[in-house]
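Final report, closing paragraph on structural work. Over the funding period we assembled a curated collection of sequence-structure pairs, and we close with a single example.
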Amino acid sequence: MASIPDILHQAYGGFAEFLEMIKFEHTIFALPFAFVSLIMATNGHLTGHLVFWVLCAMVGARTGAMGFNRVIDAEIDRQNPRTSNRAIPAGRISHRFAVYISVAAFGLLVISAAMLNTACLLASPLAIAVLIGYSYTKRYTSYSHLVLGLAISGAPLGAWLASTGTLSLSAVFLAAAVLWWIAGFDILYSLQDVEFDKRHHLYSIPAVFGIGPALWIARFLHLLCILFLASLTVSLHMGLFYILGLIAVTLLLAYEHRLVSPRDLSHITTAFFTINGLISMMFLAFVAADIWLK
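Its predicted structure, as stored:
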């Protein structure tokens, strides 16, 4: 019979494997936009209560969504050489353990929503449904990238709702910008699996339309992202720092697309992880400066 220290050690090892499996550090993509939304909605007047529970909600939502994604896609991941070494198909953690952690994470989301306000609590089941539902879409539609964008656009929407108890046109514009940004770079990321997706009858824009057209679609979506971010300059009367941040995001997105071409897909990892993480953090910094330094 295993001792308590052995049980705790195994649980810790399994939890560490789970966090590595879901790439917990990639929460950085959506989290800054949630805080952009908080700063905009409150005009910079944040409280510790609001920041803490929005942070908990974001961690819970992203952890639960990625956990269920890995469970739902475990068999697909096992067949794909690029993903076959993930924790579940490789047997390092069980489906059951991943489900338990994912359910607990969504529990944290619901508790956090309840601690924020009634509107957030009522919206939390819909958010969970979209987050889980995304994982099935690649089996049925090439527009799964847009569903992923919709799921992550819930971050700024939820943060705005947490701040004010309602939504505004500016909140919708910010969420739309996140939707197009996420969908565009998810198209780039899916270029790694074009042949696998075709062989296994999975849908993605690159697999259905080809690599060249997919790159143009991603560029168009990122143009939409910039346009929606630009619209906030008017709707929220943003100033010089915001405009500088918008220029920085535009240049980084342009650089991201220069890294990837139909003839050279070797820089996808840099384009996906490094550039997009930098975009979200830099944009947050410029928005904070614009509002707090007025």
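The CA atoms of residues 241 and 293 lie 9 Å apart. The chain is about 75% helix and 0% strand. We thank the funder for supporting this effort.
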